[in-house]
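Possible regression after last week's pipeline update?

I re-ran a chain I had predicted before the update to compare outputs. Posting the input and the new output here so someone can diff against the archived version. Not blocking, just want to make sure nothing changed silently.
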Amino acid sequence: MVNDKRAARVGNLTAADWIDAACIAIAERGVGAVAVEPLAQHLGVTKGSFYWHFPNRDALLRAALGRWEEAGTEAVIAALGRIAEPRQRLETLIAAAFASPPRIDGLAGPEIVTNHAFDLAVADAADDPTVGPVLRRVSERRVDYLGECFRALGYTPDEARHRALLAYAAFVGTLRLAREAPGRMPPDGEYRAYQRHVMATIMSEGGGEGGGSRSRPPLLAASETPK
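New output (post-update):
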């Protein structure tokens, strides 16, 4: 009877089911948790089911990373592309990146770790030969897109690149601090003020090249605005 149930389960499982299980395992326990036998046990099937869909563990890991890349970067960029106004597009992206419902355990700090647990797990495995190239590609894509957003606002290429780096560094740093030093992260009510401060700093029209402050950002002339 048990074998019959497992056989039926094998027939019902798809490659997407295995990718779902791998993504959950990565977010909860890290990249090392992507292992065929534990995942098969979790899904209630034999290892034979896995090999119907994937030749080896690395193929499953690549598929899980591919889903993360598509859902966490490319799909987000595509959705933002439907916002016509450049400033609203960038503000929407920054607000979403730093969104923070209160943590259910009551500790100071947002649930940004839970929301971006996969990002953290992938970053922790940056030296993995399968993970590293995908992490690098995703990070560069995100920074480049931020640069495009700032250029659309009229910033010079150098200033746009620097602001893009600042914005992404703030995002990555907030993720790590929320996990590694949660006691130093502001609680929910205060985090909203932090979120607004991050937004104001990234979108500020002061500072920039050469230090000091300016009343206007280094906007290009209309005829020089990047296409």
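Follow-up from reviewer: compared with the archived run. The CA atoms of residues 54 and 209 lie 51 Å apart. Marking as no regression found.
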